[in-house]
Amino acid sequence: MGYFRDKLTARQEEILTTALDIVAQEGSRALTMKRVAVKIGVTEAAIYRHFENKRHLLLALYGYVKELLLAELSPVLAEDLPAPDKLALFVATMLDYLARHRGVNLILLAETIYHQDEELRRAMLGIFSGFRELARTLIMAGVASGDFGRNIDADGFVTCLAGMMQGVLIKNMLEKGAAGEFDLKAAEKAIPDCLLSGLLPRLQA
């Protein structure tokens, strides 16, 4: 799981952690080599020794974000829980990640769309694909255990799940102006409940 991070020097990881904080707190426009250097307390030249330019720093940041996310989500799959409870924990873990990092995945997506850069697109796809594979594995395990229906469209479900979590983030960013202020507990309950129960009327006991 730490393949990308295992190849980083301590200084490179410090630079990426700082870059992530800048992007999450101030947006991608605030990310400059000089800004990173000031926050770390080194010269700008010291940053350039590790990353050739801002674009290379961004590409590395995409890989770093992917591994941070997957490192948090992967352990959920190993939990000894019924599939519906595991799904709820997966959603809660993802929402907590988005709140703590103030929606950095959305910021990186916007950066990708704005620059129309093929390498950035592939890097962003890598983040989404990593999430999708974990979520799909969880769903298919639930199908195998009989907790979820065998006719489920796992790929479609996972895409909808990602969209619902991003939708919660977008709503709160637009209404409150900050990604980290949304009601985690309400969203943690509402999303699994909607996914598991849907819009169909519930049978009365």
The percentage of residues in β strands lies in: under 5%
Quickly name the level 1 CATH class of the domain at 58-197: Mainly Alpha
> H/E order of the elements?
HHHHHHHHHH
What is the CATH topology of the domain at 58-197?
A: Tetracycline Repressor, domain 2
Count the strands?
0
Q: Quick one: biggest sheet?
A: none
Summarize the structure in words.
The protein is 75% helix and 0% strand. With 205 residues, the protein is mostly helical. It has a domain at 58-197: Tetracycline Repressor, domain 2, CATH 1.10.357. Helix 5 (54-77) runs antiparallel to helix 6 and helix 8 crosses helix 9. The longest helix has 28 residues, at 118-145. It is elongated.
Label this structure with key terms.
205 residues; mainly alpha; Tetracycline Repressor, domain 2; 75% helix; elongated
Helix-strand layout with pairing:
Elements: H1 3-6, H2 10-26, H3 33-40, H4 44-48, H5 54-77, H6 83-100, H7 104-115, H8 118-145, H9 154-176, H10 184-197
Helix pairs in contact: 2-3, 2-5, 5-6, 5-8, 6-8, 6-10, 7-8, 8-9
Question: Brief overview, please?
Answer:
With 205 residues, the protein is mostly helical.
